[in-house]
Amino acid sequence: MPKHNINIQDGFLFQNLKEAQILVVELINGKSLVGRLKRFDRFAVVIENDSGESLVYKHAIATIAPAA
User: Fold this and answer.
1) Which tens digits make up the pLDDT trace of 7-61?
2) Among residues 43, 2, 38, which one has the least CA distance to residue 18?
3) Using an 8 Å Cβ cutoff, are 64 and 12 in contact?
4) Whose CA is closest to 12, among 53, 49, 40?
5) Which residues pair with 61 in a beta bridge?
């Protein structure tokens, strides 16, 4: 029986990308970014807000959550 890899991270990011939700991205240095997910790949995400776009490497992210 083949084993299927379940990638929770990609599923979560793709759903938020599709729904264009506002996200709060907390970085490990304590800074927070608020905006919409524009793109992502294996190593980084692009967050878009009023200031423009920010490329954030995934290893620098502590949490990603929908804005309240």
Assistant:
1) 899 999 999 999 999 999 999 999 999 999 999 999 999 999 999 999 999 999 9
2) 38
3) yes
4) 40
5) 27
What is the C-alpha to C-alpha distance for residues 40 and 14, in angstroms, rounded to an integer?
8
What is this structure's pTM?
A: 0.86
For residues 16 and 14, give the distance between their C-alpha atoms in angstroms, rounded to a whole number: 5
What residues contact 17, with CB distance under 8 A and at least 6 apart? Answer: 37, 38, 39, 40
**Tokens linked to 57:** 């490497």
Helix (H) or strand (E) holding 48: strand 44-49
Structure tokens of 61?
């992210």
Residue ranges per structural domain of the chain: 29-68
What is the DSSP-derived secondary structure letter of residue 59?
G
